[in-house]
Specification:
By secondary structure, the protein is an alpha/beta fold. It has ten helices and eleven strands. The strands form three sheets. Strands 1-11-8-7-5-6 form a six-stranded parallel sheet. Strands 3-2-4 form a three-stranded parallel sheet. The chain has a two-stranded antiparallel ribbon with strand order 9-10. Helix 1 packs parallel to helix 10 (269-288), helix 6 crosses helix 7 and helix 6 (139-150) packs across helix 10 (269-288). Bound molecules: nicotinamide-adenine-dinucleotide. The site of nicotinamide-adenine-dinucleotide has 24 residues, from helix 10.
């Protein structure tokens, strides 16, 4: 069994991005600039945003955090988005989700200029990705594909079972894996799927993105399968300094010995996600400066 070390791979990619930024600067250009809007004080969102800003700093990007109060109206938020859409100094930006209940996430996603939508959530980017055109691809699915690629795991002709059908992980990763060039045969499972165990047992590659620790047990995994565990759940742990520890969807200790490859949680898909956001920001920079490489 080989651990798919997302931290290691993501550091490799960050080094590559860093050297691109150095070349841009030595050619007299500016560093790519990412803006992040956060509304309210959700602790998990604040951690994600802090990690994104830190990653920008690590690769030499400029980063701007726009922290807005929980009480902001939808219209005020849409005005901030409009000003970022028209700000030539911002290459790409994201609005950290989830948003407070009084704000319509769909309206917010649709308000972002798709050319600056480095989260890849805008319907134009989703449509273009589905058609196999160039687009911003959501960070978690593209991180999964990159992890598979860098470990030389061939997916062509393999049966991939994706557990979870969210717009940010399940659906886009299934779309990417079945594209021409990736060529996997994909089954998508969700909360209403019957006999998840039988479907998982038939899989060469299982990608689980549910958020239920222990959902994937050893008797659901065939010998030699690849398991990509996207789930991240905080489980109370009074012995940990933080008061919790993170768990994936797989019962890791029992599942891992059956696998050819498996991602740990934490340290698997998580670090790849932020790194692919950086890649998208670099792509936005090149697109906007007509400098495609
Ligand atoms: P979501 O809540 O939007 O979707 C969960 C999906 O799981 C749904 O499609 C639902 O149908 C399915 N589901 C629920 N119960 C099921 C069951 N018993 N059997 C099969 N399917 C079931 O979640 P999401 O936003 O896609 O996130 C999923 C998990 O991945 C969460 O733990 C989240 O924290 C994590 N996540 C991690 C990263 C990362 O960078 N590693 C990024 C995004 C999400």
């Amino acid at each position: 069994m080989t651990l798919l070390d997302g931290k290691y791979v993501s550091n490799q990619i960050r080094d590559e991005i860093k050297s691109c930024v150095s070349s841009l600067l030595s050619a007299g250009g500016k560093a790519p600039h990412l803006a992040v809007i956060i509304v309210g004080h959700d602790p998990a969102s604040e951690t994600y945003v802090a990690n994104k800003l830190k990653a920008c700093e690590q690769v030499g990007f400029r980063a701007t955090k726009i922290a807005l109060p929980e009480t902001i109206t939808e219209q005020q938020l849409l005005s901030y988005i409009d000003s970022l859409n028209h700000d030539d100094d911002i290459d790409g930006f994201i609005v950290q989700l989830p948003l407070p209940g009084h704000i319509d996430e769909t309206k917010v996603i649709e308000a972002i200029d798709f050319r600056k939508d480095v989260d890849g959530f805008h319907p134009i980017n989703v449509g273009r990705m589905t058609l196999g055109f160039s687009s911003f691809v959501p960070a978690t699915p593209s991180g999964i594909v990159e992890l598979l690629r860098r470990y030389g795991i061939v997916v062509a002709g393999k049966h991939c079972v994706v557990v979870g059908r969210s717009n940010i992980v399940g659906k886009p990763v299934a779309t990417l894996l079945m594209q021409k060039g990736m060529d996997a045969t994909v089954t998508i499972c969700h909360s209403q799927t019957r006999d998840l165990k039988a479907l998982c047992l038939a899989a060469d590659i299982i990608i689980t993105a549910v958020g239920q620790p222990g959902l994937l047990t050893a008797d659901m995994v065939k010998d030699g399968a690849v398991v990509i565990d996207v789930g991240i759940t905080r489980v109370d742990d009074p012995l940990s300094p933080k008061g919790y520890h993170l768990r994936g969807d797989a019962d890791f200790d029992a599942v891992a010995p059956k696998c050819s490859f498996i991602t740990p949680v934490p340290g698997g898909v998580g670090p790849m996600t932020i790194t692919m956001l950086l890649k998208n920001t670099l792509q936005a920079y090149h697109n906007l400066h007509n400098n495609n490489q």
